[in-house]
Amino acid sequence: MTLTPEEIRILGCLVEKESTTPDGYPLTTNSLVAACNQRTSRDPVVDYDEATVTETLISLREQALARTSRGEGSRVYKHAHTLDAALGLDPAELATLSVMMLRGPQTVGELRTRSERQHSFASLDAIQFTLEQLAGREPPLVVLLPRQPGQKEARWTHTLGGSPGSVAPEGAGAPPRASGTSEPLALEVAELREEVSALRDRLEELERSLPR
Question: Most exposed residue of 2, 129, 168, 179, measured as fewest CB within 10 angstroms of its CB?
Answer without folding.
Answer: 179
